Peptidyl-tRNA hydrolase
Amino acid sequence: MAASFSRNAMAAMAFWCFASGKKGPVKPLISISAVQQDEYQCTRCRWTAKVLRAALGEHKWGRRAGAAAQRRNTAQKVLEAADQQKVCSKRRFPKRIRIRQKRDTMRVSFVDENEPEVNGGFRYRDVTENMQVVVDGLVRHCEQMLPQLQGELLTRAYRFTEQSDEFRVSTAFTDRYFAEPS
């Protein structure tokens, strides 16, 4: 997202960042306030979704509709974890990242340093200075977003089997689930 947002205005960032440029923006799931708005805000949101999915994936989940309450309780437990087990723990983020830019849209994103490069259409750049500042920014963004998302996350864990036969973390909480059209 371009820096055309006013920094003085209240940040009301909606989760349409993840939508493909070819499809255009989709209706926001919810709006998130008070997040840093710059060209990296969408990639920060995506990393928040990735670490959330990783944290949720560490637990056992009931897959059928009858286990909805158990899923909601498990999600609550994950969101309330402390120290190294919390969702936004620094251990869940990569120690070193690179910047990837899509050539046709000029969209930038953070990728793990160990992620293999995609051929064609992308260029990569190492973050040579202030790596800790960038990683700390990802953690801070995650910590700002999750309290605002808690209700939606618990609802999704509880009600997912109304739309699907079986619950799986990988299908209920994809890296880009915030942008799915309703």
